[in-house]
Amino acid sequence: MSVISAASPESAVLTASRVAALCAETVERGFADYDKQFRTITLRARERFINRDWSGSYADAAERLRLYTLQMEKLTTRISQIMGPRVTDRGIWAGMKAVYSSLIATSTKWEIAESFFNSLTRRIFATEGVDQSIEFVDTDFDEAPTTVPADTRRLYSGGSIHELLIASLTDPSIGFAEEDWCALNETAQRAAERVEAAFRASPQKTLEDARPKLEMIGSIFYRGRGAYLVARAFRNSADRAPVALALCLRRPDEGGICLDAILIGETDLAILFSFTRAYFRVDTKCPYQLVRSLHQLMPRKRLIDLYNAIGYNRHGKTEFYRDFVRHLRTSSDRFVTAEGAHGM
Fold it and tell me: Which of 183, 198, 221, 257 has the greatest count of CB atoms below 10 A from its CB?
């Protein structure tokens, strides 16, 4: 029995449906390879931070930024080899999209995978406007697939805010070992005082028998020379106005990790996650879930901004377009020719 190579001349004899299936599988493998490399680079961030390897950290950020383009170039060449003269056959591409959608239905990063496919079609067709038949203009999934993992946020309770901060910062699942810290007790106490001041400033009445809780996103956000733990603090189980916060960590010298600052409230967090900053390196199995956890803390932030912040800037463009289309559906706005010199 002979096997037809996807890149061989014999592939030209395959039916359109077989070519569509073969290409969809190739794209899915290409995305899996991209995702694996993306995560490998991201996971280096912790050791870079602990070892104060700042040059390595910046090199990783640059490598991850280039990764998407490099993967897309290789995939474009591969798909062109498989399809040959049929590479711009939109009927085959429509079939590819349908097969690909079924292949990513069990992925926890399905929305990123959809944008990955869109990037490929635009490289092949240099599309002006959009084509629903060959692009994921809207997602194929009305709801998140059932494969979305359980919520990875971690809850700390049963102590004072000071004790809960220390518990989270030294939790081996997300924090650092106690011996890695410098003056943790003192800095955590000052941070706790800031949180308690925010509790008192809230219009919600503070109960005398308050039993605070700390709900921490279960991944550390690394960027530049800093590491950040993002959370919200509750005064008690009935608190409907928790305080959003970010713990800013630094490793300035061999003396250990220090709790350098605490950011309090949505406004401070929005600045931290501003589009003017570099992308975070944060390990997540499910960007969809992480972005929505962040959105709970910063409800005025758009999804595009949050996807951009964690390094999925290509999907951020997809979210921007979808948000724009939703706006047009409920708006009477009309496009007009811009004033001024053409092209400026």
Answer: 221
